[in-house]
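Quality-control log, excerpt.
Job 1 of 2 completed; input and output follow.
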Amino acid sequence: QVQLVESGGGEVQPGGSLLLSCVASGITAYYGIGWFRQAPGKQREAVSCISSTEFSTYYADSVKGRFTISRDKAKNALYLQMNSLKPEDTAVYYCAIQSLPAGLLDIDNYNYWGQGTQVTVSS
């Protein structure tokens, strides 16, 4: 049984930082893994994705230069370092895995999802 468990969310002031973590179990071989977010009343969107080979990495334009995705293969973990946070970054953040080769940016290609962790940026 595949499980993805996110942690690290919370409330932070604008300009602050958070480190999100995602630990995967039940799966070690996959094509892509990434972070997605969904704000109230908005569609879920890709934030940052990385291929299992780490040959391909994607960042949404809105987070480039502020967020960094990384992996720890030994721990089967994925991280998202979020710096210079803005109120518009407020959302539920999800970790997801794409098990088969397909478009890395297409949210519909991700077939395993975590439960999400809330990030709130507010003064």
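Job 2 of 2 completed; input and output follow.
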Amino acid sequence: QVQLVESGGGLVQAGGSLRLSCAASGSIFRINAMGWYRQAPGKQREFVGGISRGGGNTYSTASVKGRFTISRDNAKNTVYLQMNSLKPEDTAVYYCAAGISGSYASGALYDYWGQGTQVTVSS
């Protein structure tokens, strides 16, 4: 099993920045792709983006492209989501995910999930 713990959420004004972190533990040798999802109140969970095992390839959904950056530090078993130019519509619970397959860009192929961290962007 793989355990994922997110941190770094909070309240920020529109235009501000936050960096989320997600630390992995357990059977981390199984992890290839890592990614982020979010779920706003009353909406379905949305795939924000993912990163390949080596960190050299990333995918971001159109609504965050150019504002959010995904990175990972395999020595620390941690993935990050740097969020800049935040908008009120970015308000959501953000979830870290890890996948056994190498398909980092496919939102349907993640196997493990964190508990989520709340991000609130005020206007």
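Post-run check on job 2. The chain is about 0% helix and 50% strand.
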